[in-house]
Amino acid sequence: MRRAVQALSIRPADRVLEVGCGNGWAVSLICDKLQSGRILAIDRSTPMIALAKQRNEKHIVSGRARFRTVDLIALTSAETFDKIFAVNVNTFWRRPVPRELALLKKLLHPKGSLYLFFESPAPRADDLGARVVKALEPSGWLAESTHLDGKVMMVTARPA
pTM of whole model > 0.85? Predict the structure, then answer.
C-alpha cells in the first residue's frame, strides 16, 4: 500500500477517488499528504467502510476524507478527481465493464490519471499488467504498465 501511495505522487491540493478502499489504510497515508485536497473512498462492503471510518476519524473531521458504501457503477458525484486509483480490485483485471470505465472517464479531471495496482507472483505480474492494458484500450483508455517491484504492477491510464 505504501508503494502504491508513493507512486501516486499526491500533491496537497489533489482530489482523489479510491475504488475499493477496504479498511482505509491508503486513505490514512494519502490524507497525511493533503492540505486543501480531499479523498472520497468507496467500497461496497459496509463492514469495511465502518473500519475505514474508524481508522480515519480525524481525517473525516478535518474534511479531507469522505467514505461511501457504494459499488463503483452506482457512484454518483458532481465533482471530478485528479487521481483515481484501486489496489487489487479484480473488476479491472478480470473483465472491466465498459459502463464502469465510461463512468471513470466522467469522474476524472481532463488532466487526471487512473492508477490500478495489482500484487501478483513475480512471473505473472507482466502478464497481469498486459491483460489490464489490453482490457482498458477498447473502452478508450491509453494505458501503460510499470513494475513497482518484483510482484507489484501499476497500470496508469488516461482517456484517449
Answer: yes
